[in-house]
Q: What sequence folds into this?
């Protein structure tokens, strides 16, 4: 399946649109495709040249602003231009991962990479995901869900924090790239967290007990030949630092080890768990599961249905470990996307 018949779609309204641009830049270096389409925050479609995309500096910190006029005012207007094309989703967060775009492409008989709408919606909701994993006997952290517009929100967070001696994690139920993530180890951390939440845009949060252990993330690669777990990566955070947005994408106080230095039986246990999570949620294409390797074994944190693809992202790191290029990887993803269309009865 030729990538030259594919459109890389990136940008969007999400807080992760900067990461989306960085992913698209890396794909532009590795893939020969039909076009690069950028969605701005009003969801207008721009046909961006490879040169313009690659010339954008500091993708993780500076907004991408197209120099050309919009191709169309929205994706619906662009449907005639997508006929017979494959969409490679370089989108992260919100409309990219919550099933919205997947519904749109599926309803309009367009092949797209990644998971189906149902799995995307489920995985994007961290609490709903945990409910499914618990039914499958997959270990997850203890938690409570909270609404920041609830009058008792602050009391609930403080009570939960006290229960674990101020060692908790608070994050939006629907977000990624460590946006809005708060790791709390003190009363001071808690107060700062509550202050920032009041001024933030998210309204629904999940609070979990902080898990002591090694932080691992493992990609799962599904192709027409089957499902394979990629080598694990380990995140080593310097004392006093967090694996937040700055740490994840700018390397601030964070060291990433790929492959993770694990004993083979432990590595396999974690990889098998990532595959089990992928299947439990009903995902397709590729995913990445985050977990903590505790003294009693791995505990799952969450699954990402469209993980980052930038130079510094884990999926490219893990593919490199097994000598698989992004070109080969996405040729398989596009094949899988077209197989899905055929199963839906589209000729």
A:
């Amino acid at each position: 399946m030729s990538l030259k018949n594919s459109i890389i779609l990136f940008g969007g309204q999400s807080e992760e649109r900067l990461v989306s641009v960085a992913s698209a830049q890396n794909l532009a270096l590795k893939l020969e495709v039909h076009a690069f389409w950028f969605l701005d925050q009003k969801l207008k479609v721009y046909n961006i040249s490879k040169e313009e995309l690659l010339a954008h500096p500091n993708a993780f910190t500076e907004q991408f602003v197209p120099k050309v006029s919009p191709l169309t005012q929205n994706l619906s207007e662009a449907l005639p231009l997508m006929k017979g094309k494959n969409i490679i989703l370089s989108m992260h967060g919100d409309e990219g991962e919550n099933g919205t775009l997947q519904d749109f492409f599926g309803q309009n008989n367009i092949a797209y990479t990644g998971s189906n709408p149902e799995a995307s919606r489920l995985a994007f909701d961290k609490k709903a995901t945990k409910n499914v994993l618990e039914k499958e006997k997959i270990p997850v952290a203890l938690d409570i869900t909270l609404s920041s517009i609830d009058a008792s929100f602050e009391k609930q967070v403080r009570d939960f924090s006290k229960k674990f001696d101020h060692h908790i994690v608070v994050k939006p139920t629907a977000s990624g790239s460590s946006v809005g993530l708060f790791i709390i180890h003190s009363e001071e951390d808690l107060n700062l967290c509550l202050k920032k939440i009041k001024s933030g845009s998210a309204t629904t949060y999940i609070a979990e007990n902080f898990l002591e252990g090694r932080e691992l993330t493992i990609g799962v690669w599904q192709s027409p030949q089957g499902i394979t777990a990629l080598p694990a990566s380990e995140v080593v955070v310097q004392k006093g630092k967090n694996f937040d947005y700055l740490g994840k994408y700018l390397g601030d106080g964070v060291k990433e080890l790929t492959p993770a230095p694990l004993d083979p039986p432990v590595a396999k246990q974690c990889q098998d768990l990532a595959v089990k999570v992928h299947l439990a949620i009903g995902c397709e294409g590729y995913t990445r599961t985050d977990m903590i390797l505790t003294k009693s074994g791995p505990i799952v944190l969450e699954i990402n249905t469209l993980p980052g693809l930038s130079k510094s992202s884990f999926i490219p790191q893990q593919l490199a470990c097994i000598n698989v290029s992004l070109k080969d990887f996405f040729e398989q993803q596009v094949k899988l996307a077209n197989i899905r269309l055929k199963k839906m009865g589209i000729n």
